[in-house]
């Protein structure tokens, strides 16, 4: 089973700063993955042409199931509020998504509160204090050919320490779903810390950011101790969208 995690930067290309439906579909199709966890996903956002990026990804992969879950309603960096109850149709949303070529038996959504204080972030050569955004964990019990497997995706906080807390909460939430379990996502953490915090196996150690010349790994595929298979091919292919590279991992179940 081929899995991929991809922080898509709302589908934007670094080449021209634009979001193109055709280019985004091609980028996802090139992964040729059975299950993909996507982060920084837009829905009905003016900056991405009000596209439904999750639906485009599902179309690109021939997925039979897909789901988008908003972390915020509004536009990050501008005006937004924490997502909760479904917003009115057409209101811009931003969050995570999963697409699967295999049927999904059950979905789970677990919300992760934002850090309570502003944190310093370097932007344009200066340091500014930014409020953190709430995050969300999306998990699916997938009816894979070899049997059920739980696959989850999330995008954790950039705030040091708070992202560790969110990762612990995510692992606890996933205990409610059957193993083996796999977590895909931009964890904003190095692999060693993710392994120690979770006790899970790091399926791949390859830099994913920045996309042009990757130097650090923010994007991970973690497998829990119930996974009895082996890790196959691993890659971080270049992509026409995003400032992250996708991480693609073959699991031999």
TrEMBL record:
Start and end residues of each Endonuclease/exonuclease/phosphatase domain: 4-244
Native species: Virgisporangium aurantiacum
Entry's Gene Ontology BP terms: GPI anchor biosynthetic process
Superkingdom classification of source: Bacteria
Keyword hit for Heme: no
InterPro entries reported in the protein's UniProt record: Endo/exonu/phosph_ase_sf (IPR036691), Endo/exonuclease/phosphatase (IPR005135), GPI-anchor_lipid_remodeler (IPR051916)
Protein name as catalogued: Endonuclease/exonuclease/phosphatase
Alphabetically ordered keywords of this record: Endonuclease, Hydrolase, Nuclease
PANTHER family: CALCOFLUOR WHITE HYPERSENSITIVE PROTEIN PRECURSOR, PGAP2-INTERACTING PROTEIN
Gene3D superfamilies cross-referenced by the UniProt entry: Endonuclease/exonuclease/phosphatase (3.60.10.10)
């Amino acid at each position: 089973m081929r899995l991929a995690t991809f922080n898509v930067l709302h589908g934007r290309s670094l080449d021209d700063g634009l979001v193109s439906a055709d280019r985004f579909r091609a980028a996802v199709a090139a992964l040729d993955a059975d299950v993909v966890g996507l982060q920084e996903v837009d829905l009905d956002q003016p900056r991405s042409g009000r596209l439904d990026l999750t639906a485009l990804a599902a179309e690109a992969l021939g997925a039979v199931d897909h789901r988008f879950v908003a972390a915020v309603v509004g536009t990050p960096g501008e005006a937004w509020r924490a997502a909760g109850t479904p917003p009115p149709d057409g209101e811009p949303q931003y969050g995570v998504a999963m697409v699967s070529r295999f049927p999904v038996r059950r979905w789970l959504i677990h919300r992760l509160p934002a850090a309570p204080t502003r944190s310093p972030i370097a932007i344009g050569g200066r340091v500014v204090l930014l409020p953190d955004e709430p995050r969300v964990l999306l998990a699916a019990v997938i009816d894979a050919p070899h049997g059920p497997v739980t696959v989850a995706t999330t995008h954790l906080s950039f705030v040091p320490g708070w992202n560790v807390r969110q990762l612990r909460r995510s692992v606890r939430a996933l205990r409610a779903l059957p193993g083996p379990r796999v977590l895909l996502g931009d964890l904003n953490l190095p692999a060693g810390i993710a392994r120690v915090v979770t006790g899970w196996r790091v399926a791949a150690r390859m830099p994913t950011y920045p996309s042009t010349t990757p130097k650090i790994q923010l994007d991970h595929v973690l497998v829990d101790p119930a996974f009895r298979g082996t890790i196959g091919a691993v890659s971080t292919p270049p992509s026409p969208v995003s400032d992250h590279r996708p991480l693609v991992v073959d699991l031999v179940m």
